Amino acid sequence: MSNDYFKHKAGSYEEINHRVENVENIANSILATTQLEKTMNIMDFGSGTGLLLERVAPYVGKITAVDISTAMNEQLDKKRADLNCDLEILEMDLSKSFLDRKFDGIISSMTLHHVDDIRSMFSRFYAMLRDGGILALADLDLEDGSFHTEDTGVFHFGFDRELLLDIAKEAGFKSAEITSASTVCKPQGDYSVFLLTGHR
Ligand SMILES: C[S@@+](CC[C@H](N)C(=O)[O-])C[C@H]1O[C@@H](n2cnc3c(N)ncnc32)[C@H](O)[C@@H]1O
Predict the structure, then answer these.
(1) Which atom of ligand 1 is nearest to the CA of 48?
(2) What is the DSSP letter of 27?
(3) pLDDT attached to residue 150
(4) Residues forming a β-bridge with 140
(5) Measured from the CB, is residue 48 less than 6 Å from ligand 1?
(6) Which of 5, 122, 175, 179 has its CA 20 to 30 Å from the CA of residue 131?
(7) Beta-bridge partners for 159
(8) Which residues have CB under 8 Å from 31's CB, separation 6+?
(9) Pocket test for ligand 1, best of 3, 108, 114, 148 (most atoms within 8 A of CB)
């Protein structure tokens, strides 16, 4: 990619305790609220270094990791041998390129706020799921813009839960609901994180 916002962060990405703890909480929420099976091929949108997918890997057959960042994908690739499922890494901007595939589920952690057109993204998620396929996305609740201290390509200072639920339903998702998944405690403040679930 021409502008890899995570180029200089990828190598040390997992050294931040609150970041790892947050994704642990998100993974636990996903595992508690979704029915995953070893026959499933799920996609992790904005998979980064694999913090989320490595926790979900024991419960599915294959994970397709989609990330725009070469540097993050390189870090993830180093984990391949230790994962308890098959791993496919696709380097692409999923907000711009169309992926003509059907997955049993789409999971995502802390990536949605990097996407400009959320409505279009939810329609793409819907198109990439088989009937009955699961959606489980975690991201920040509305915040004042202080969460990020450097530019990593942020389009949204978190999300309004009701607005996001409406967008998910408009895209066609059934049983869409939002629960609290985690809180990130940083020196400048505490930031709550939601989990949106639903299915096609
Ligand atoms: C904040 S990181 C989260 C990484 C990981 N999910 C986690 O929770 O540790 C956001 C990731 O989304 C990726 N990303 C952002 N926009 C993307 C897009 N349009 N298509 C694919 N990946 C994207 C970034 O490269 C980055 O690796």
Answers:
(1) 27
(2) H
(3) 83
(4) 193
(5) yes
(6) 179
(7) 141
(8) 55, 56, 59
(9) 114
Residue (of 134, 94, 142, 145) closest to 117 by Cα position? 94
Domain limits, the chain: 10-199
Enter the tokens of residue 123.
Answer: 């329609």
Cβ–Cβ < 8 Å for 104, 36: no
- The per-residue pLDDT for 8 is 87
Confidence band, pLDDT 50/70/90 cuts, at residue 1? very low
Helix/strand/coil for 183: strand
pLDDT of residue 117: 97
- pLDDT over 80 at 2, yes or no: no
Is the pLDDT at 3 greater than 80? The verdict is no
Listing DSSP states for 80-146 in one string gives GGG-SSEEEEEE--TTTS-----EEEEEEES-GGG-S-HHHHHHHHHHTEEEEEEEEEEEEBS--S-
Q: Take residue 111 and report the two structure tokens written for it.
A: 């990536």
**DSSP reduced 3-state for 37:** coil
Contact 29, 182 (CB under 8 A): yes
Token duo for residue 143: 């915040």
Q: pTM of this prediction? A: 0.97
Domain 10-199: which topology?
A: Rossmann fold (3.40.50)
How many other CB atoms sit within 10 Å of the CB of residue 114? 17
pLDDT of 162 > 60? The answer is yes
